[in-house]
Amino acid sequence: MSRGLDTQALLRLMAWLSPAFPIGGFAWSGGLERAVFDRLLTNAAGLKDWLSAILGHGALWNDAVLFAEAWRQSANEAMLKEAAELGLALAGSAERFTETLSLGKAFVAAASAWPDAVLERLPPDVPFPVAVGAVAAAHDVPAEKALAAYLHAAVSQSVSAGIRLGVAGQTEGVAILADLEDLIAETAERAAQTTLADLGGAAVQAEIASLRHETQHSRLFRS
Questions:
Q1: How confident is the model at residue 4 (pLDDT cuts 50, 70, 90)?
Q2: Does the pLDDT at position 135 exceed 60?
């Protein structure tokens, strides 16, 4: 997993994880909206702590482990199907299930602009990290670099959601991204060496927030 990242692979990675890539990631908050509604988060410092917990112990950590597995198994259709089924089974709420499945399907559809046999090996119902991991491997993007980009994009989306929800300003949001750089890099490096045995989380408040969002009537986000 130590291959270099050439210019073409870098450009593809930037495109796939760009906010402009047509997967609709801006519509989801992963329970963050409910956490703000319940005043678990009230400022930028709280948002940073929340994201740190998700990276190290929550849904983003499990996403990273699934991503790494899909990267390793990109040529194995049976193993990709198993990873996809496991990823969907691990969704802690109906909204989390819909979020990762919706993003995964949309990613595969959009990634077809770069034709590759891996798109045929992926199952129809594929969670987002499995889709991105498999496609990244098929296009020779190193695992650790792809993981870092994936996690940074996810954190950036959450920061953007936090700004829209009023718990941080744009300058504070940029500062959060800067402060979390080392943690993102460390998490990517660690996740690149994992197996499925490393799946697991302890971000209980975040999982509860995701569940509670399902009954929230006034909302900006779908999760």
A1: low
A2: yes
How far apart CA 23 and CA 220 sit, in angstroms, is 17
Question: What is the structure's pLDDT at 211?
Answer: 95
Q: Which domains does the chain have, with CATH numbers?
A: 29-213 (1.10.4190.10)
CA distance 87 to 129: 8
Percent helix, strand, coil in the chain (nearest 5)? 65, 0, 35
| Per-position b or e across 10-30, b if 16+ CB within 10 A of its CB | eebbeebbeeebebebeebbb
CB-based burial, 180-211: b 16+ in 10 Å, e otherwise: beebbeebbebbbebeeeebebebebbbbbbb
Distance CA 5, CA 127 (A): 25
Dihedral sign, Cα of residue 147, residue 14, residue 32, residue 85: negative
Which of 72-81, 166-175, 180-189, 212-221 is least confident?
212-221
* DSSP-based three-state secondary structure for 199: coil
- According to DSSP, residue 215 is labeled T
Q: How far apart are the first and last CA of the chain?
A: 33
Would you say residue 2 has pLDDT above 50? no
* Average pLDDT score over the chain: 96
